[in-house]
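Example record

The entry below shows one chain as it appears in the dataset: sequence first, then structure tokens.
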Amino acid sequence: MPNKIMTQTELILLNLSEIRRRSIKLWKALPEEYYHWQPDNEAMTAIQMIRHVLEADYGWNIIINQGDMTHYRTPWENRPYRNVNEELEFAQPYREQFLDSIKKFSAEELSENQIIHPGNGEKKILGDYLLRIGYHEAVHAGNFLSYLRAMGVDRPNVWD
């Protein structure tokens, strides 16, 4: 049976899913007593970094759908930090909405739609922007590995 050739959208979704799978492996290795650990006073705590990555999906979804970010408010506003599993559970519907949005983009839209990032005003092609979203999470996974190392916590193998 011949292998199916993956579409651009399928490849982007696979990339985002694999990055998230590895992030979750790292996050679940975090002992509760280290949730509020940070390498210095300027850095995010471990649980803040997890939320930052999870919360970003909500904003990314608005941006890729050309939504208005002028009065951006996050569903996480004033939500207390509890534990990794609750963070994942709360974030899941927003992750699904984000991935569902990506599934709807055609190859033409991925290569022609321009996205303006509200943080810096730069224009990017949608497909490129989606890959940069994956890079954002991957960078934080590297940060998190460093956090675990500095804490002296065993680091799970993400190179499977």
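Notes for this example: The chain has a mean pLDDT of 96. The beta strands are 114-116, 123-125.
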